[in-house]
Design goal:
By secondary structure, the chain is mostly helical. The longest helix has 30 residues. Its main location: mitochondrion.
Length: 70
């Protein structure tokens, strides 16, 4: 790592600390997913539907094309 990259990392960390201190040490909880994860049952249903759709779609498309060509 060259000196410029090291200095950049140091200043980036200092900037983040400075921004946190300016906010009074309080920061909002940032959720990295675009949906609510507090409801565990709802999350389980959403994950199951997402997984079933992603896994089943190629099989559905293959079935549709085979049925359509016959």
């Amino acid at each position: 790592m060259n000196a410029f990259a090291a200095r950049s990392l140091i200043t980036r960390g200092a900037f983040a600390r400075q921004r946190l201190l300016r906010s009074g040490g309080h920061h909002e909880h940032m959720n990295p997913v675009p949906f609510n994860t507090d409801n565990k049952a709802g999350l389980a249903v959403k994950v199951a539907l997402f997984t079933a759709t992603g896994f089943g779609l190629p099989f559905f498309v293959a079935w549709y094309h085979l049925r359509d060509s016959a």
